[in-house]
Amino acid sequence: MPPRKKIETMPPELKAWLDEELVRRGFGDYVQLAADLRAKGADVSKSGLQRYGSQFEADLANMRIAGEQARAVIAANPDEDDSMSQALMRMTQHKVFEVLKVVQIDPDKMDLGKLTLQVSRLVRASLPMKKYAAEVRAKAEQRMKEVEAEAKAMKGESRDIALAMLEKVRAVYEGAL
User: Does pTM top 0.85 for this prediction?
Assistant: First the structure.
């Protein structure tokens, strides 16, 4: 087994500082970053920092893309029937087995129960959020109907202005769903 990388053996607070600095510096300036780390008592080479920084930047980019894709999927497919949670479980299961193959870990030696439990907790956590979102949506729709009735009861130019404003609010509301 190869020796652990110096960055992996850093104290958690120094590692957190390094991660923040990499992001702040735009994943560059490795010479100065190595000097700053030496001043803090960690002797990590510029090359080691660059290897770590490149992987960290790629991981952040992948997480950003995954978040954007998830938002797009959810916006395009409201999850009224919990299909998103089911898809998440299937995708997670598939990815776990892919990872196990790549790192050549025997699935029988891996505690898949713990992983499954975490996925289950994620799915369970999404249910109250969906219920709350449905309640808020219903209240908002009810209030829009009430405001519309009030606007229609008005007369003259005030009525026209109120209805025009209501249409703008409705457009924003419907665009946000």
Answer: no
